[in-house]
Amino acid sequence: MSTLRSRTAEPVAQIVTLAKEPVPGRVKTRLTPPFSPAQAAALAEAALADSLRAVSAAPATQRVLALDGLPGLWLPGGHVVIPQRGDGLDERLAAAFTDAHRLRPDPVVLIGMDTPQVTAELLAEACEALGRHDAVYGPAADGGFWLLGLRRPDPALLLGVPMSRPETGEHQLERLARARLAVHHLPELADVDTAADAAAVAALAPRTRFAATLRELTR
């Protein structure tokens, strides 16, 4: 048994990954230019694969992929696939929490597909923290968040929070504070949105599939 898996004999939380099928023209559009839509999709697929690999290595009671689109060869085994619901990102996040919790009534840790540098250790910390805290929050460098964990998922904690803005994280933390939730904070990570972001994240995590794909596309 690995050191990571032996750290927690009985996982306390499930992990949900919110993602889009990496189809050219539908993902990572801010990477074009300088990358073509096909290249941007290749980077998105690599980032998603890295994220799912970390999820697979972290202790969890269940692993869920809340997917907009269809699964592909990039999906490892051991994941339950559910469709995304809702229009705005706040609705889709709230629905992913609700639907995963309906499948299995455990605390929920949710991440996206924009942080290929995420590690199983960070995810394990988030899951374990929900045994002692009401929520877990991972801030993103752009002002949003890369991870949100809730011991008792409630759509009211997300619906109406303005998403994809520099102040998104501030609003989300205010929502958690108004609910008087005890929050465990994780380190800040950078999302991959632009070509500059991609280069910076690849430099921080050179052994990821994402970094290898970027090197192949830019050599």
Automatic annotation (TrEMBL):
<dbReference type="InterPro" id="IPR029044">
    <property type="entry name" value="Nucleotide-diphossugar_trans"/>
</dbReference>
<dbReference type="Pfam" id="PF09837">
    <property type="entry name" value="DUF2064"/>
</dbReference>
<dbReference type="InterPro" id="IPR018641">
    <property type="entry name" value="Trfase_1_rSAM/seldom-assoc"/>
</dbReference>
<protein>
    <recommendedName>
        <fullName>Glycosyltransferase</fullName>
    </recommendedName>
</protein>
